[in-house]
Amino acid sequence: MSAIAQYLSGIGKKVSGSDRLFTNPENDYIKEQLEAEGIKCFVQDGSGITEETQVIVASTAIEDTNVEIKKANDLGIDRMVRSEILAAISKTKQTVALAGTSGKSTTTAILFHILYECGVSPSMMTGAGIVSLIEQGKIGNAFVGESDYLLIEADESDGSLVKYAPHIGVLLNMDKDHKEFDELRVIFNTFKANTRDHFIVNHSGGSVKEFSAGHSHDFGEGTDWDGKDYKQEGFSISFKFKGIDVKMPTIGRHNMENALACLVVADLIGVDLEKACAALATYPGIYRRHQLLGEKNGVIVIDDYAHNPAKIAASIRAAQDVGKKVLAWFQPHGFTPTRFIRKELVEEVSACLRPEDEMWMSEIYYAGGTTTKDISANDLIQDLLAKGSKARFVEDRDDLLEALRPELDEGTVIVLMGARDPSLEKFGKDLFENL
Q1: What is the pTM of this model?
Q2: Is the dihedral of CA 10, 54, 148, 103 positive or negative?
């Protein structure tokens, strides 16, 4: 939502907005960043909705009982969901939509960096901040560029992906997250059918290979657009692409796949591949995606947005190449999503943990709204213990660091994982500072 607001303000629209978290002083910095972009911010009490408001845009997570939704209805103001306005914007540009259950934000950020460094200057709306933009004092998840290209993260979780008709569609992967596989197949097939010019599919791992139509620009295993000689050394990966040496300051084989997708798109747009590969060496990273918080006393701390089974396992595996032992901590979000992924998460995590690694969890983050609180993160921990994995439950995350201390020695990597909770960024930084 904040990305859309920044983009619309950036092209000259009058934009205001609210969030229930604005009542917490800890979130004042977000209000300040938005207001610096010309977006007036309100507490979510209805005061921001007036007769001058022409349309109200809300994500599907906002319930009809919300005070501002009710006021907008009373005033007869048109309402759009987030995906509808994003679809409307995308129709005005040469849009590249990046889809899949994992890696959308990272891949959007990598592609933005390649194109910007190679002189294309695309517009961009995504779900996480790019470090280079954050360093300019921005939220970092939106940019109004000078070219006609627009990069968007296309979300399958609420089914809104079917509303987009991009010029280039990219499908990265398919894993159980918010929806069952049968639902995802319908959504991704519709996305493919709606894509106007080029539909690009990842052949590595086979999770979305079924959506390929034999396109010459599909990438990954068994295609002409694959990476070779992959290596990871510390916080850097390297590989060869069409005979070109590539280095990136990030971790994990999945990030090579993300980069391959971007190189395919760059080629279709007309960017020189050698220049595109060279740009990857200066990729600045993205907020809370394998973000290195630092190293202290031989202990490395990484902050990551991983929150579904495949992402959590990928994050742990990537960290295994960084240190001798991984202590992975996860805060699930939402009781319904936790119930939905319980079985797959336990299977994925137990399969990727080495004997020296451990999985830790704190209690489920509850953001409000109506739900049934009939599951605990400790239920997942007990499932992992039953499979023979090392696992610990620390109900209150504020007690995590003291519980971890006896396990910390040189070569330990702490990976902090979780989504939706805006306080996770501060939690990670505080944990590192107090290490």
Answers
A1: 0.79
A2: positive
Interior/surface letters 137-169, b for 16+ CB within 10 angstroms, e for the rest: ebbbbbbbbeeebbbbbbbbbebbbbbbbbbbb
Tell me 117's DSSP state: H
CA distance 273 to 281: 13
CA distance linking residue 213 with residue 188, whole number of Å: 13
pLDDT tens digits along 325-342:
999 999 999 898 899 899
Tokens 């660091």 belong to 401
CATH code matching the domain that covers 291-433, chosen among 3.30.470.10, 3.30.2320.30, 3.90.190.20, 2.40.50.140: 3.90.190.20
CA pair distance 130, 139, nearest whole angstrom = 8
* Residue 351 φ then ψ, to 5°: -75, -25
Q: At which residue do the structure tokens 């990976």 appear?
A: 415
Q: Which two tokens stand for residue 156?
A: 């399958």
CATH class for the region spanning 91-280? alpha beta
Q: Is 153 helix (H, G, I), strand (E, B) or coil?
A: strand
Beta strands in 45-160 (DSSP E): 55-58, 78-81, 94-99, 123-125, 142-143, 149-153
